[in-house]
Structures are given as structure tokens and as C-alpha cells.
Amino acid sequence: MSNEVCVVGSVALDSVETPGGRADDQLGGSCSYFSLAAAFFAPVNMVGVVGRDFPDEKRDFLASRGINMDGLDTVDGDTFRWSGRYHENMNVRDTLDLQLNVFESFNPRLSEACRKSDFVFLANIIPSVQAGVLEQFDSPLIVGADTMDIYIDDAREDLEALLKNVDLLSINDSEAVQLAGEANVVRAARRILDMGPDTLLVKRGEYGALQFSADDIFAVPAFPLETVVDPTGAGDCFAGGLFGSLAEAGEVNRRSLRRAVVYGSVVASFAVEGFGVEGLRQVEREDVERRFREFMALTDFHTE
Amino acid sequence: MSNEVCVVGSVALDSVETPGGRADDQLGGSCSYFSLAAAFFAPVNMVGVVGRDFPDEKRDFLASRGINMDGLDTVDGDTFRWSGRYHENMNVRDTLDLQLNVFESFNPRLSEACRKSDFVFLANIIPSVQAGVLEQFDSPLIVGADTMDIYIDDAREDLEALLKNVDLLSINDSEAVQLAGEANVVRAARRILDMGPDTLLVKRGEYGALQFSADDIFAVPAFPLETVVDPTGAGDCFAGGLFGSLAEAGEVNRRSLRRAVVYGSVVASFAVEGFGVEGLRQVEREDVERRFREFMALTDFHTE
Fold first, then answer.
1. CATH of segment(s) B5-11+28-78+111-299
2. Which of A257, B152, B176, B248 could bond to B41 as cystine, CB 3.0-4.6 Å?
3. Is the Cβ pair B299, A88 closer than 8 Å?
């Protein structure tokens, strides 16, 4: 078994406005956030596509975190661009502009090395592409996936087919309700587990997360933050921290899954403290460990 | 020191409509919910007022839980009545009718026994009445209080004066934001602690609660429920369970406060499983303990 993580998803240049400021041409995309988060814990292979305009500075930053970019294709055209604006209540945002560019024809062929990965994550892209990638892997120990509202609505058949082959689905609470057609999150989770996944992570933003399996529920609050600069990518960082931690543990069980959720939450909490990936730029593994210990103190009524 | 709890607040007859049904003339009011919740853990003295129409059946139920009702005055007139309707999203409700009746002139004189109480809770009533009651106590170990949006807006001066003499304030997240004039809950909490309380409990409904003190934050998720019948009184039950647990512990420190928050959350989770106080009717202390243990399993990543 290898403890390498392979993640397939979008790599983008984001422009974000929040009540507190704005930042243009930030490194973004689900694959970028996930990779940076997972790289605290394990070797990461990112699979994605960018255009000729993708800045060397972004590439260098990813490389500086030890992320293997052999699977990041550079092709003629422009990189995927997204711009959005957050409301005063940072739980709500509007997409101002979306240009798929080179991402529109993204249909990756995995390298021999990637095919052998044990920890596979299909970040938020169209379900048929997720499925096309998934079938190229040899025999992963665990397959995770994310999705979003538009695919739940417009590509439900493909998504449901994919979910039969997904071990861990990571979505937010409104997506869980939408996917299950059930307003109560506990009942929604049960329906989603019936669709295939063994484990469901329901992310609730500033309120924390719930992780469901057939016979277990794990609940964690979010790390309370005085400053939230930009929530973009928090969910991808959560999933990346979770998968990285699982890969480091080298096994998937109740204990490793629970600790992985806390690590995911910790990495996400750093990410939202800056624009784009800036919140993670200065963070080292020892900072992650310090906040993990703070998280234990924050939630502990067990051991005293 | 005595471990008796004394709570001052409203006793009402509620009519509630939810997406799932309706129930009329239910036992309600902050004092009723608080008392029933606290009574799982400690002797409770309730101080309130009802009219001649208050049914014996309600009185008998309170008495069956060992609640001392010497401080519950019965006067000429009708009992406080509230009726409300919950939206599909049970976090939102409309008040359909409110008749203060005998509660309008509520201005209690405490008995000698009540004055000696060490665990005092001023449930959600007008701040000037809370202050008038508070000055009648001899020297409580801890004074808790609740309040609500209309008092934060319309009686801010009285409320701020009261808060100087309150040790633990229990409010929900929107009230915390309103009271502090600060949208971030961590910064809002710091401002509220500066107003007087040593401890602030911020209730977040189905998302759990945060408890703040000068040098500590404790975060707990809510117990995940498949069925929420009626959220009315959940916050009062949370505070009641918390105060009852503190009184049982007989001391106020980091450990007892944290366990008390979990007990508060547990009792509130039972309360919302039925209309009015019905969710608590069949619950015994052993059920509370069982759910406390389930809560430990739900949140544990510390001890494995």
C-alpha cells in the first residue's frame, strides 16, 4: 500500500470580493485547495488542467508544498476563471463570472503512478468526468468525492451511478438535503448512505460538520474564529485535510476517520483566515498540530 | 451551601402550529421549561404567576417532578397565553397571538427560603423585573439570566445594568450579535463578557452551543435528531439542564460548567421531540444519562 493521495479536480484563478476587501487572480479551484490541505499530511498527486496563462508563481507555491504536478496538464488556452462576491453574511455568495476555458474539455488520462493510488479523491467536477477518471484507478483503498447543487439537479443519473462506487462523499448540508430530498439532516444522511457511500461527511460551515456511517455519527463544531476573510475553498480544504490525514494514518477505521475530520476542520479554519490560499501560505505542520490540540481543548469534556 | 435552584420567569399556556401538526393549551413559559429541565438534577423552586384558569393537570405534572411551587402565585385573571406557528424551516416562527394577562403585573416577592438560594436563574422576562427579583436574594453562588431581542432593543439600559450583576448569560446567537453590535460571534462574546458576565452561553439551535469565559471557549454540537416536533422552550430547557447540573455538582468551575453545557444540550434534545413539555414527560434521569453517554460517543476523538 502507498500512502499517496491522488486528487482530480479544478485548478482556477479566482477573483473574490468580500465585505472586507477584494483579491484578484488568486490560486483557486477544488484541486488546488484540496492538494494544499492534504499535503500537510501525505504526498499528493494533483490531476488537473491549466492554460498557458497559469502563473509560474502559483506553480512554484504548489511545488513548494511538495505537491506532485506531473498530472497537471498545461494546454493552449486560458485557465478556468471564477469571480464571486460574498454578502455581509459570509454564508451567502453570488457568482459574478465563470469562464471554464481549458477546463471545458477536461478529461484526464492518469499516469501509471497515479493509477496505483490508494487514497483517491474526485473533487467537485461533472459526475461523468469523475466516473471516467475513477475507472482508471487500479484498486484504491478509499475513494472520496465531492459534488455540488448544479450536478445534483442537472446530472443526477450520472451522480447516482458514481455514488455506487464512492466510499466517502463530502458535501455541505444544503447539498445533502437536496440530494436526499429530505429536510432533516439525519434522515437525509441515511438516504445518501443507501445510495452507496460507506461514509458521508456533511459540512456546515461555521457550525462544524457531521460524519455519518451505517452505525455511527460523529459531530464536531467548527473552530471559532475571530476573523473570516474569505470562505472560498473551505470545503475543499476540509476534504483535503481529511484525506491527507487518512493517508498518513494508512488505514480507514472509526478512529482514523474521526481524527481526519478534526484535521480537516483545522486546515479549513486556517484557509478562511486569508484570501484564496493565502490563509495556508504561512502555515506549517506544527501550526496544524497546535490548532488540533486547541481543538481538543475546545471540545473536551471527556477526559477531565 | 444549598444545591437548590430558584428560577423566576413566565408560566404560560401555549398553542403551537408546526409543519407536522398543532397542539393547544400546552404548558409553556420559560419558567416551566427551565424548572422541568433543572429538576432532573436538583431541587427546584419556581417563582411565577398564573391565573385561576391554570389547569390542575399542569400543576400536578410540575409537582410530580418534585418542583416546589410555593413561589407560583395564583391570582385573579387568566394565565399568560402565547400562540405561534413554525415555518417549514423550524428555525423560523411567527407569533400569532400574545396575551400577557396576569403576567403583565408580575413583580414577585421571594419567600425566605428562596432568598437563600445559591443557584439563581432569571429567565426571559423584562430586565427591570429581573433586577427587582435579583436584589431580594441574599448571596447566590451563581446568577444566570436569559433575555431576548425585544429587551435588547427596547430596554437596553436596564439590561446593561442587570448584566453587571449576572454571572452567566444564556442567549442565542442572533441575540448575541444584536446585544454586542458585532456580527462575528467570537468578538461579540468578548464584548458581552466585558458587560459583566463571567460566562456566556451562546445557543445555536440545531448547530449546538458555544460557552465563553475570559480565557476559555467550549464548543459542542447539538445531538442529531431524526425528529424535531416543536422547538419551543429548547433554550429554556438548555439553561435549566445546565443550571440543574451545576447545582448538582455544587461548584462552578471549568469542568462543572462544561459538563453542565452537555447536560443542557441533552435535556433540550429531549424537549424538542414532543409538543410543549410532552417531549420531557416520559424522560427519567436514566434516559438523560444514556443520552449523555451517547453524546460522549458522538463527539469523542479524545480518548480512543
1. 3.40.1190.20
2. B248
3. no
Residue B218 and residue A299: Cβ atoms within 8 Å?
Answer: yes
A121 closest CA partner among A92, A139, A89, A143? A143
Query: Is the predicted pLDDT of residue A22 greater than 80, yes or no?
Result: yes
Give B46's contacts (C-beta < 8 A, 6+ positions apart): B7, B11, B31, B32, B35, B62, B67, B68, B69, B71, B72
Does A300 contact B at CB distance below 8 Å?
yes
Least Cα separation, residue B206 to chain A (angstroms): 10
* Contact predicate A49/A102, CB 8 Å: yes
Distance CA B258, CA B264 (A): 10
Q: Is the dihedral of CA B119, B123, B127, B129 positive or negative?
A: negative
Amino acid letter, A182 = E
ipTM of the complex: 0.94
B109 CB-near residues (< 8 Å, 6+ apart): B136
Residue A135's CB is within 10 A of a number of other CB atoms, namely 8
Give the up-direction half-sphere exposure of residue A127: CA atoms within 13 A in the CB hemisphere: 21
Interface contact A92, partner B, CB < 8 A: no
Q: Is A228 on the interface with B (CB under 8 A)?
A: yes
DSSP A119-145: EEEE-SS-HHHHHHHHTTSS--SEEEE
**Could you say which DSSP state residue B1 is in?**
-
- Contact state of B258 with A304 under an 8 Å Cβ cutoff: yes
C-alpha to C-alpha distance for B147 and B164, rounded to whole angstroms: 14
Total residues found in chain A within this entry? 304
Q: Which of A201, A286, A244 is nearest to A45 (CA)?
A: A244
From B89, B204, B221, residue closest to A220, measured CB to CB: B221
pTM of the predicted structure, to 2 decimals: 0.95
Q: Under CATH, what is the fold of the domain A5-10+30-45+109-299?
A: UDP-N-acetylmuramoyl-L-alanine:D-glutamate ligase (3.40.1190)
Between chain A and chain B, the number of residue pairs with CB atoms below 8 A apart is 94
Closest residue, chain A, to B190 (C-alpha): A226
Phi and psi at residue B275, to the nearest 5°: -70, 140
* Identity of residue B53: D
Q: Strand, coil or helix: what is A178?
A: helix
* Residue B147, CA atoms < 13 Å, CB-side half-sphere: 29
Q: Which residues, listed in sequence order, are joined to residue A99 by a DSSP beta bridge?
A: A81
Of A99, A222, A51, A1, whose CA–CA distance to B186 is shortest? A222
Query: For residue A303, what pLDDT is reported?
Result: 64
How does A96-132 read in b/e, with b if 16+ C-beta sit within 10 Å? eeeeebbbeebebebeeebebbbbbbbbbbbbbbbbe
Return the C-alpha cell found at A279.
Answer: 490563509
The mean pLDDT value for B51-74 works out to: 97
DSSP A265: H
A219 touches chain B (CB under 8 A): yes
**Distance (Å) from the alpha carbon of A131 to chain B's nearest alpha carbon:** 32
Contact B217 A224 (CB under 8 A): yes
Task: Tell me which DSSP letter residue B190 carries.
Answer: H
B221/A219 touch (CB, cutoff 8 Å), yes or no: yes
* Mean pLDDT, chain B, whole residue set: 95
Q: Would the pLDDT of B302 be above 80?
A: no
